[in-house]
């Protein structure tokens, strides 16, 4: 039995979640500070991967990062190849899971009472300190649950991954791809085992999410 | 200690145009909800940016559109108490007070002093959700004063409180403000609050500042109809001058003799609901035949709604507030059919 899909999936999900987590928070802050017309455009753009079929996202990624793509060409010049490498699984997972993180973070930030930020400013607290000590702690439950959602989504990513990273066992074959391949080869026991593992991980993620959300809200809810 | 404000700003529904000056006193800003009072405070604090104008606090220019000066709120040293107090819910009382204190000062000592001063002992480690409205207000004040602002802005400080708590807290606030001798601007839609707390006041209507002066002067001798309405004059009628001591009240269809000399620019005449008296049947001057259309009882007085019996002005409400004693002894618990407008109580308005 080859456990490399579990290892690859976890590695991909962890790396991509780290990237989406920071990128999502950053993008949410940026969009909130933009003027209305521009922010509307970026909001659409950042949410798009959520509504597009993953294969469509994968196709677009192929066009952009492929050997003849805009960015692919640049990478090729410096000797970096993306398509059909492990990095491609991360790329696919980041793009697909990004909207979940972005939207959760934006929602969480928007819920923070603006008056608290204003109060902080009039009390002479720097913008950075306001963000770290007031906005982040209050938005944390939403942000963390966004991160967990993004992780779960990255773990389950199939369509875009197979388009851009393919199915190379030991390198780009993630659990969802392994399930598909196992079923194709009529290897139902192997497929069932991967399904079981994914269900367990998904379950743990939900428990973790509820735990974090609940714990962080304790100072508001108790009353 | 001085604050000078002269600002203009286009806003939803109205244009803000306020100019006021405060010299070391408590200044109240009275206006109806959504008239631009809070917006004025936000402009002073730097939360909102005026389109043009100038704001100067103790010789320090906070905002000056002609010189492109717009200090960040952090640099203004303006203490702003929000309507909902805006305590940081993720911090304890002590942390809330501590966060605005500069690094170079003895934080621990200041927090302790504030906790003592505002009678918050024992609450240091509690979170804001577990405090009562009054305690929350004290923490908010302690937090602001620990930061040592040069001016204090209070935005509807009592709007979130039960009426029975209010009076006690107003008294407490007044004592704190006197002790600290910090310049204070209080915004409110409640004339009682302004009257109790402020020596000077400004009236804002639809974004425009229409009157500024001593609180008692404005309450007892309002100049504008809007001021009269905001300071609690319930009965206001359009009017024009007949002679030096006579006006015609158009809405009431009556000619009224006045004690004060009538100016040329009079456009309204008013009388407070408390100042109406029962009409003497032998005196015709300043009296009116009325029909009572509604009576309500409140704990300390009767509110009577009257209409002129004269057809041509029928339907114009006249409010009369009658103390329980007067109602019982003089009126014998019955609304009279003739009322009088005492000439010395008439308010002549522009």
TrEMBL record, chain A:
Keyword Plastid carried by entry: no
Membrane topology: Multi-pass membrane protein
Keyword Cell wall biogenesis/degradation: no
GO molecular function: molybdate ion transmembrane transporter activity
Membrane-spanning residues: 6-28, 40-66, 78-102, 130-152, 191-212
One GO CC annotation: plasma membrane
Location of the protein in the cell: Cell membrane
PANTHER family, per the entry: MOLYBDENUM TRANSPORT SYSTEM PERMEASE PROTEIN MODB
Sequence ranges assigned to domain ABC transmembrane type-1 in this UniProt record: 6-210
Protein name: Molybdenum transport system permease
Keywords: Cell membrane, Membrane, Molybdenum, Transmembrane, Transmembrane helix, Transport
Family: Belongs to the binding-protein-dependent transport system permease family. CysTW subfamily.
Predominant location category: membrane
Function per UniProt: Part of the binding-protein-dependent transport system for molybdenum; probably responsible for the translocation of the substrate across the membrane.
SUPFAM superfamilies reported in the protein's UniProt record: MetI-like
TrEMBL record, chain B:
Transmembrane segments: none
Molecular function terms, GO-annotated: ATP binding; ATP hydrolysis activity
Record keywords: ATP-binding, Nucleotide-binding, Transport
Domain ABC transporter: 2-231
Stored Gene3D superfamilies: P-loop containing nucleotide triphosphate hydrolases (3.40.50.300)
Entries under SUPFAM superfamilies matching the protein: P-loop containing nucleoside triphosphate hydrolases (SSF52540)
Record bears the keyword ATP-binding: yes
Family matches, as Pfam families: ABC_tran
Protein name, as recorded: Molybdate transport system ATP-binding protein
């Amino acid at each position: 039995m080859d456990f490399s899909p579990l290892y690859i999936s976890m590695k991909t999900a962890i790396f991509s979640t780290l990237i989406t987590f920071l990128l999502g928070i950053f993008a949410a802050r940026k969009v909130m500070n933009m003027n209305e017309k521009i922010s509307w455009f970026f909001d659409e753009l950042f949410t798009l991967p959520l509504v597009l079929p993953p294969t469509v996202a994968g196709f677009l990624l192929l066009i952009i990062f492929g050997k003849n793509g805009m960015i692919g060409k640049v990478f090729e010049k410096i000797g970096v190849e993306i398509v059909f490498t492990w990095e491609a699984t991360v790329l696919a997972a980041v793009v697909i899971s990004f909207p979940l993180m972005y939207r959760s973070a934006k929602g969480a930030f928007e819920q923070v009472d603006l008056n608290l930020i204003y109060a902080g400013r009039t009390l002479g607290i720097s913008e950075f300190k306001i963000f770290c000590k007031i906005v982040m702690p209050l938005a944390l439950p939403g942000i963390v649950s966004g991160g967990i959602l993004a992780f779960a989504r990255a773990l389950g990513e199939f369509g875009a991954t197979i388009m851009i990273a393919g199915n190379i066992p030991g390198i780009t074959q993630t659990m969802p791809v392994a399930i598909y391949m196992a079923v194709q080869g009529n290897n139902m026991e192997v497929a069932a085992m991967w399904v079981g593992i994914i269900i367990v991980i998904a379950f743990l993620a939900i428990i973790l999410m509820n735990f974090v959300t609940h714990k962080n809200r304790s100072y508001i809810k108790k009353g | 200690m001085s604050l000078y404000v002269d600002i203009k700003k286009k806003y939803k529904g109205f244009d803000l145009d306020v100019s006021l000056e405060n010299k070391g006193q408590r200044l109240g800003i009275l206006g109806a909800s959504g008239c631009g009072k809070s917006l004025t405070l936000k402009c002073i604090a730097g939360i909102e940016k005026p389109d043009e104008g100038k704001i100067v606090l103790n010789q320090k220019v906070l905002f000056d559109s002609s010189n492109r000066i717009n200090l960040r709120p952090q640099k203004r040293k303006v203490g702003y108490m929000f309507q909902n107090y805006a305590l940081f819910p993720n911090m304890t009382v002590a942390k809330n007070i501590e966060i605005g204190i500069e690094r170079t000062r003895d934080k621990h000592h200041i927090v302790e002093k504030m906790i003592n001063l505002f009678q918050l002992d024992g609450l240091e480690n509690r979170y804001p959700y577990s405090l009562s409205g009054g305690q929350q207000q004290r923490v908010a004040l302690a937090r602001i004063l620990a930061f040592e602002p040069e001016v204090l802005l209070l935005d509807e400080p009592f709007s979130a409180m039960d009426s029975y708590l209010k009076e006690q807290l107003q008294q407490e606030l007044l004592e704190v403000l006197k002790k600290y001798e910090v310049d204070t601007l209080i915004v409110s839609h409640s004339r009682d609050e302004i009257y109790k707390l402020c020596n000077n006041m400004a009236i804002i209507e639809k974004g425009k500042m229409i009157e500024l002066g001593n609180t008692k002067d404005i309450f007892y001798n309002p100049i504008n109809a809007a001021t009269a309405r905001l300071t609690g004059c319930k009965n206001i009628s359009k009017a024009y001058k007949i002679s030096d001591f006579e006006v015609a009240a158009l809405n009431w269809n009556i000619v009224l003799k006045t004690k004060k000399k009538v100016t040329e620019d009079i456009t309204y005449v008013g009388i407070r609901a408390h100042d109406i008296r029962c009409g003497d049947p032998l005196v015709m001057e300043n009296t009116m035949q009325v029909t009572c259309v509604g009576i309500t009882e409140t704990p300390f007085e009767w509110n009577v709604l009257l209409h002129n019996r004269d057809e041509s002005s029928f339907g114009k409400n006249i409010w009369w507030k009658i103390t329980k004693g007067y109602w019982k002894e003089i009126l014998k618990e019955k609304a009279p059919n003739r009322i009088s407008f005492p000439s010395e109580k008439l308010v002549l308005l522009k």
